[in-house]
Amino acid sequence: MRNFDLAPLYRATVGFDQIADMLDRVASTDVTQPTYPPYNIEKTADDAYRISIAVAGFAEDDLSVEVKDGALYVSARKSEDASARTFLHRGIATRAFERRFQLADHVRVTGAAHADGMLHIDLAREVPEALKPRRIEIGKGTDVVEGQAVN
After folding, report:
1. Whole-model pTM?
2. CA–CA distance, 65 with 52 (Å, rounded to integer)
3. Per-residue pLDDT reduced to its tens digit, 28-60
4. Which of 64, 67, 37, 42 is nearest to 53 (CA)?
5. Are 95 and 75 in contact (CB under 8 A)?
């Protein structure tokens, strides 16, 4: 396992502590990532996204979608019915899973839908007005007092 020293990144940036922490977290996690169930992430608009997860064999009651600590958790647990069903071939996996997606700042989940064996989770990025770019007027003065240029 490689260890990366992120100290230069902390010294050279202001306010990007979360990015450095995320890089540190990614570097320290196990390399093997689960591949079940398969999923797609698509951009549906400028500030809208959709995560589509293949959940064939699961009912809506078997699925759970929740957001906590800036992460989206999707899990499924199939209750094993004790019926006398005998499979000659079982190709549809209905094993329990938990998928975690780290959400960026100001991204919120707007809805979830289950149809045709797919779970669709819609996300929207909502940047607050205070964080949107704004133009700063430049005054013709030598001193600035409380936002006003003084001649």
Report:
1. 0.65
2. 12
3. 655 556 778 899 999 999 889 999 999 988 889
4. 37
5. no
Give the whole-angstrom CA distance, residue 56 versus residue 58.
Answer: 6
Secondary element (H or E) of residue 5: none
- Residue for token digits 């979360």? 18
Ramachandran angles phi, psi of 21, nearest 5°: -65, -40
Q: How far apart are CA 147 and CA 151, in angstroms?
A: 13
Q: DSSP 3-state assignment of 38?
A: coil
Give the span between the Cα atoms of 6 and 24, in whole angstroms: 8
Per-residue pLDDT, 95 = 85
- Distance between alpha carbon 127 and the CA centroid of its chain, in Å? 15
H or E element at residue 145: strand 143-145
DSSP class of 140 = S
Domain 36-129 CATH class label: mainly beta
pLDDT digits (tens, 9 = 90+) for 72-100: 999 999 876 646 678 888 888 788 899 98
| Omega cis (within 30) before 37 | yes
Domain ranges of the chain: 1-33, 36-129
